[in-house]
Amino acid sequence: MEEVEVVVAHQERATLRVGDVFLKIDADQARTDVEVEAMALAPIPTPRVLWRKPPVLALAALPGMPLGRLGRPSTASPEAWAAAGAAVRKLHDAPLPPWPGRSLNEIASELDGECEWLIANEVLPADLVTRNRQVAEAALRPWTPVFTHGDLQIAHVFVGGDEVTGVIDWSEAGRGDALFDLAILTLGHEERLGDVLAGYGADVDLDVIRAWWSLRSLLAIRWLVDHGFDPSAPGCEVDVLRRRA
């Protein structure tokens, strides 16, 4: 009998692994709709959809291992990180998905609200929040939309040797800022940015990537706390904010 492994579980969704099959259970079927369509459109390797019976989506396991984990050193080679950068560039060069992404105004409004909450509830020192809010301002500028993954954490990129074998968790995909994907991929692993950009093969504004590191971390903390995760663990979001300040 196959054992059931709980990969992740919280109030919004859960992912189970049974042998070589992942079962994703999501309370919001709109997210699953996006995930299935995005994987079909993406020009890079993605998990194979085995079946879907709402609220469950069954996906075949990818070969290889995650590029790394937030809060832990990555053992992947520079070439693997460069391959991830090349895969991201291929995605960004693809035709736009038919659905919109989040607007600049929506992101700015959410950022203001989260910063107010962090300070009012004394979750973080006010000066740390204020400084990172200032850094984040550089990301709040017009951008040319591209096909973005939207949640390109290193744990979502699988590699075998020096090649990308697939990218998982596409529920946040949509039209967005290319530098956001690059920032999320290197969040907490800033030392790997050069390898990623070598594979990406385009000049980018490093100040904007640093701004997205701050912005993403500020936006994530309340959600992480509410869902049982620890953003203050070594190398995670709070450490990212401290480095920016």
Overview of the structural elements:
With 245 residues, this protein is of the alpha+beta class. The chain has helices at 29-41, 78-92, 104-120, 126-136, 178-186, 193-200, 206-226, 237-244; strands at 4-9, 13-18, 21-26, 49-53, 56-60, 65-66, 146-148, 157-160, 163-167, 174-176. The strands form 3 sheets. Strands 1-2-3-5-4 form a 5-stranded antiparallel sheet. A 3-stranded antiparallel sheet has the order 6-8-9, covered by helices on one side. The radius of gyration is 18 Å and the shape is globular. 38% of the residues are buried.
Mean pLDDT: 95
Widest beta sheet: strand line-up = 1-2-3-5-4
User: How many beta-strand runs?
Assistant: 10
Q: Give the biggest beta sheet.
A: 5 strands, antiparallel
Tell me what the CATH architecture is.
Alpha-Beta Complex
| Gyration radius, in Å | 18 Å
Helical stretch count? 8
CA-to-CA gap between the ends? 51 Å
Topology pattern, helix = H, strand = E:
EEEHEEEHHHEEEEHHHH
The CATH top-level class label: Alpha Beta
CATH-level-4 superfamily name:
Aminoglycoside phosphotransferase (APH), C-terminal lobe
InterPro entries: AGP_Transferase, Aminoglycoside_PTrfase, Kinase-like_dom_sf
Domain Aminoglycoside phosphotransferase: 40-203
Organism: Actinomadura barringtoniae
Protein name: Phosphotransferase
